[in-house]
Structures are given as structure tokens and as C-alpha cells.
Amino acid sequence: MNALIDLHAAQPYWIWLALGVMLLAVEAAFSTEWLLWPAVAAGVVAVATALGLPLGPLGEILLFAVLTVAATLLSRRLIQRVNPSDSPDINARDSRLIGQRAQVVQAFVDGRGRVFVSGAEWVAEIEGAAPLAGESVIVEAMDGPKLKVRAV
């Protein structure tokens, strides 16, 4: 413990830099989304102490705490503004298919066929007149692994 106290007295930025790197490594390994801003705050405190600002141990801890809380709160507001909760999930590929144009790859027989959309081939169902292979259809809904389509 005395070695750590001596290091802080001589060069406090190394302790803050090490803390920032450790937090960033844990964030990168586990993707918690909570440790990024404390890592950034530790980096800012490291820069402040490297520039020779006379904060002292208590001031450094206080600056770290204030920066962590402020950055975390501001980032949450920014994320909500950039990614509103009503926007479709980028990973929900199935829901993004609705409304897209698909190409018939296997002719419909008794209302069932195959279509190609969004880089994949899907089983599809259609009601009414069925288009021929190579023609386009519009995806209307999903029923498990099947697409419900309509003629263009």
C-alpha cells in the first residue's frame, strides 16, 4: 500500500491512467455499456493530474465521480435521442422484411412458393393470382418461418 501512496505522490496520473485502462478492458471484454464513461473520466483525471493541476487525492476522486455521473447521464440522453425506443430493432431482421420487395424464385403452387428477399430465400404464401418465377412481390407479414406476400 505504501508503494501505491508513494507512486500517487510522485506521479498521480499513472494511477488514473491504469484505472482507466482497466475499466476500458473490462468494458471491452464484457460489453456492459456502464464502464465506458468511468474509463473516460479516469482518463480525463489522468490528463488533469499530468498537467499539474493541484487537485490532491480528494479532489481527484471528486472530479472522477462528477465526470463519471455527468458523462453517464449525458450519454443516456444522447442515446435516447439518436435511437428512439419506437425505432425498429436493427437486429430484428424479420420485422424489417415487411414492406420490402421480394423476387419469386420458385413459382407458387396452391398458394405456396419461394421468394428471395434481404439476402435469403424464404418460403412464401400468396392469396389470389400468383406471379411467375422472376417477378416481384411485396412482403406483407410473417408467419413463423413463412412470409405472406402479395403481387405487385
Count of individual helical segments: 5
Helix residue percentage? 40-55%
Order of helices and strands: HHHHHEEEEE
Sequence stretches where pLDDT stays below 50 over 5 or more residues: none
Structure description:
With 152 residues, this protein is an alpha+beta fold. The chain is 49% helix and 24% strand. It has 5 helices and 5 strands. It has helices at residues 2-10, 12-30, 36-50, 56-82, 93-97; strands spanning 101-109, 112-117, 120-126, 136-143, 146-151. It has a 5-stranded mixed beta barrel. Strand 2 (112-117) and strand 3 form a beta hairpin. Helix 1 (2-10) crosses helix 2 (12-30), helix 2 runs antiparallel to helix 3 and helix 3 packs across helix 4. The model has no long low-confidence stretch (mean pLDDT 87).
Structure summarized in a few sentences:
The chain is built from 5 helices and 5 strands; from the N terminus they run H-H-H-H-H-E-E-E-E-E. By secondary structure, it is of the alpha+beta class.
What's the structural blueprint in terms of helices and strands?
Elements (H helix, E strand, L loop, with lengths): L1 H9 L1 H19 L5 H15 L5 H27 L10 H5 L3 E9 L2 E6 L2 E7 L9 E8 L2 E6 L1
